[in-house]
């Protein structure tokens, strides 16, 4: 099977290490057009798999606040890799899952590589990857990128994700004020065929609420009238939230994402590891 696979994750999650373990010397470095961000690509050929792998810039989020975030997101949306491997640092799970849920909200086929399980274990932490697989609805495969452990299982899971139907975008609940605004925005967004061809409707509403410069610009240039209405909804809910809660939508969205993650973790994802030297 010849498929395109993106590799995304937080800085220092082990992306480059995994990329090298998968592609060896079959790699080259290019450029993303117009920006000074390297584009590393390589080929993974093993056990009947033939995959083209692109190492995305490391990011903490997928909102257009930095060049890296825009590059990563544009790649995912414009070049439609069949699967995205989201590499996650198991010893820093809570923070890393913040990006994971954004991949899932974008509705792209994802496979989680749970990396650094050796580091987690040396700190006495064991991640229940099977439970996390069930809760997230995507495969979570434990690996040690530095030694190559779990690499084959990961790529088998990637091949299965490539063949599965495209997933429904994850729905995180953002509380009454923002949910009311999203409900008001969704029918308006549906009128913009350009945006809805690229992104899930609910995701676009969230980007308006997060004041995402790139989505605002695309909205304005493709349907100014609709974009004006969406921006008016955003202003109205922002003013209300500021007055009643002394916060703003971006902060509320982040809080609810972290709330979603802590509700996952409360379901017993992190366990004590009794054998700190055990590998698999
Ligand atoms: P990137 O920023 O995501 O590309 O991360 P790197 O691949 O550069 O890895 C960051 C650091 O973590 C490097 O020092 C790696 O050698 C180390 N590293 C990566 N994967 C593992 C792993 O599974 N176990 C351990 N112990 N270290 C790892
Ligand atoms: K690094
Ligand atoms: Mg790197």
From TrEMBL:
Which residues are involved in binding GTP? 9-16, 34-38, 55-58, 115-118
The residue ranges of the FeoB-type G domain are: 2-164
What is the top-level taxon of the source organism? Bacteria
Enumerate the residues binding Mg(2+). Answer: 20-21, 23-24
Which cellular compartments is it found in? Answer: Cell inner membrane
Q: What does this protein do?
A: Probable transporter of a GTP-driven Fe(2+) uptake system.
The entry assigns this protein to a family as follows: Belongs to the TRAFAC class TrmE-Era-EngA-EngB-Septin-like GTPase superfamily. FeoB GTPase (TC 9.A.8) family.
Q: Which protein is depicted?
A: Ferrous iron transport protein B
Q: Which organism is it from?
A: Desulfosarcina ovata subsp. ovata
């Amino acid at each position: 099977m010849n498929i395109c696979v993106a590799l995304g994750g937080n800085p220092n999650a082990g992306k480059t290490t995994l990329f090298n373990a998968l592609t060896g010397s079959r790699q080259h470095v290019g450029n993303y057009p117009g920006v000074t961000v390297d584009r590393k690509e390589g080929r993974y050929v093993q056990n009947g798999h033939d995959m083209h792998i692109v190492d995305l810039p490391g990011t903490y989020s997928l909102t257009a606040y930095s060049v890296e975030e825009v590059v990563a997101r544009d790649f995912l949306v414009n070049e439609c890799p069949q699967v995205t491997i989201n590499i996650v640092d198991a010893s820093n799970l809570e923070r890393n899952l913040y990006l994971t849920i954004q991949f899932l909200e974008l509705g792209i086929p994802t496979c989680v590589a749970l990396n650094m399980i050796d580091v987690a274990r040396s700190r006495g932490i064991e991640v229940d990857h099977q439970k996390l697989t069930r809760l997230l609805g995507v495969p979570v495969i434990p690996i040690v990128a530095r030694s190559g452990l779990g690499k084959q299982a990961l790529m088998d899971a990637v091949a299965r994700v490539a063949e599965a139907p495209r997933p429904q975008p994850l729905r995180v609940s953002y509380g009454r004020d923002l949910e009311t605004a999203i409900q008001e925005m969704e029918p308006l967004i549906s009128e913009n065929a350009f945006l809805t061809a690229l992104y899930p409707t609910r995701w676009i509403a969230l980007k308006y609420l997060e004041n995402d410069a790139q989505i605002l610009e695309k909205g304005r240039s493709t349907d100014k009238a609709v974009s004006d209405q969406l921006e008016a909804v955003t202003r109205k809910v922002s003013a209300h939230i500021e007055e009643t809660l002394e916060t703003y939508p971006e902060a509320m969205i982040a809080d609810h994402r972290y709330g979603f993650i802590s509700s996952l973790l409360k379901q017993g994802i992190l366990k004590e590891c009794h054998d700190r030297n055990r590998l698999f």
